[in-house]
UniProtKB/TrEMBL annotation:
Organism expressing this protein natively: Halcyon senegalensis
MAM domain segment(s): 5-134
InterPro entries: ConA-like_dom_sf (IPR013320), MAM_dom (IPR000998), MAM_domain-containing (IPR051560)
PANTHER family named in the record: APICAL ENDOSOMAL GLYCOPROTEIN PRECURSOR (PTHR23282), MAM DOMAIN-CONTAINING PROTEIN (PTHR23282:SF101)
Protein name: MALR1 protein
Family annotation (Gene3D superfamilies): 2.60.120.200
GO terms under cellular component: membrane
Amino acid sequence: GSSCEKCDFETDLCKSLQELNLHPGWKRRNGRSGMGPPYSDHTGNESAYFLSLSSETQSSSATLRTNIFLPTDEHHICQITFHYWISQMSGMLMVGLQKHSEDTITNIWQVSGELQNQWKSNTITINSTEKYKV
């Protein structure tokens, strides 16, 4: 069966993201917050919430971590689809994988320098024989 979980930030952080690891740079806001674009979420809804990096953190990085996911196999594949918006030429968005037995984070996807000023979406498929975080 499908165990898809939608993560929309409408009430708070979604269940799959660790509450304690919301880096100070991230803010939960919507298009009406007065913080500049985007002025709506990817569906065009002005009052829908999303996470945004505040402009004070331009020069630094901020991380969001998921809770622990179980290993994948032919019956349990993991696909994560997310929507993103990059509004700085210097901005970079990376997705990393940290396996249970490793301290290091392996970069599995990244996008940078695309000053598109529009919502884009991406889906990544994750294979891991052990528990992992993203």
